[in-house]
């Protein structure tokens, strides 16, 4: 397996994809991240059943979404800019936001993932984006409902209720709640664009 740009990151030998992903978190000293992504994968699979999506694909996006977190936060901005990619102001202030883009690169470059639904969902799982697809929204919501902090998210009940209506409703409920309650230190442009888009099409769901 060619590691290329990620050559300093330890990865497991070739194995079934889910096993390979799991071992990558462990080899890089991220057992808590592994627990989180497994919970997100389970949540994604449940949403897949609810909305008729590919359950296995949803499990994979859940497991892969934080794989870029094996890179040190202080290295993320340097890595992204070295590839000629510009940073959003939110990413300059809070470089860890870049882990969503790096996770997508890792999935594609190291693990050979080519499925655009998977890559797109991973790339925007923290911020969402304008015109999101079903898999984008599924991972976004699953990640927020299965957050990696103690206790139950303060928006949990509201987002779960909105999820019974549609993926779009759940995403807009989370974004609105988090912005109105100061949960986001500096909003990423993609998040704001997602909010505008979801509000614009709200009469369709």
Helices and strands, with pairings:
Blueprint: H1 17-27, H2 31-51, H3 55-64, H4 73-82, H5 89-93, H6 99-109, H7 116-123, H8 134-145, H9 156-163, H10 167-180, H11 189-200
Helix pairs in contact: 2-3, 2-8, 3-7, 6-7, 7-8, 8-10, 9-10, 10-11
Explain this structure.
It contains eleven helices and no strands. By secondary structure, it is mostly helical. The longest helix is centred in the N-terminal third of the chain and has 21 residues.
- Provide the β-strand percentage band: under 5%
Low-pLDDT windows of residues: none
- Helix fraction by DSSP (H/I, runs of at least 4): 55-70%
- Count of distinct strands: 0
Assembly context of the chains: single chain
Strand/helix succession? HHHHHHHHHHH
Task: Report Rg.
Answer: 16 Å
State the helix count. Answer: 11
Q: Main sheet, how many strands, which sense, barrel?
A: none
Shape: globular
> What structural class do helix, strand and pairing data support?
mainly alpha
Give the distance, in angstroms, between the N- and C-terminal Cα atoms: 44 Å
How much is the average pLDDT? 91
């Amino acid at each position: 397996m060619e590691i290329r740009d990620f050559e300093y990151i330890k990865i497991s030998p070739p194995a079934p994809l889910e096993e390979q992903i799991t071992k990558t978190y462990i080899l890089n000293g991220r057992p808590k991240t592994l627990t989180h992504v497994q919970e997100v994968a389970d949540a994604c699979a449940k949403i897949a059943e609810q909305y008729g999506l590919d359950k296995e694909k949803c499990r994979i996006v859940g497991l892969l979404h934080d794989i870029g977190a094996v890179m040190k936060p202080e290295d993320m901005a340097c890595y992204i800019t070295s590839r000629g990619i510009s940073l959003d102001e939110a990413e300059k202030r809070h470089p860890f936001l870049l882990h969503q883009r790096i996770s997508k690169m890792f999935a594609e470059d190291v693990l050979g993932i080519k499925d655009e639904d998977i890559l797109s969902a991973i790339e925007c799982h923290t911020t969402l984006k304008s015109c999101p697809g079903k898999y984008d929204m599924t991972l976004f919501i699953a990640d927020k409902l299965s957050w990696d902090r103690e206790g139950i998210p303060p928006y949990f009940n509201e987002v779960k209720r909105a999820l019974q209506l549609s993926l779009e409703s759940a995403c807009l409920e989370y974004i609105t709640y988090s912005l109105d309650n100061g949960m986001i230190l500096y909003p990423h442009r993609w998040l704001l664009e997602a909010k505008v888009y979801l509000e614009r099409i709200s009469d369709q769901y």
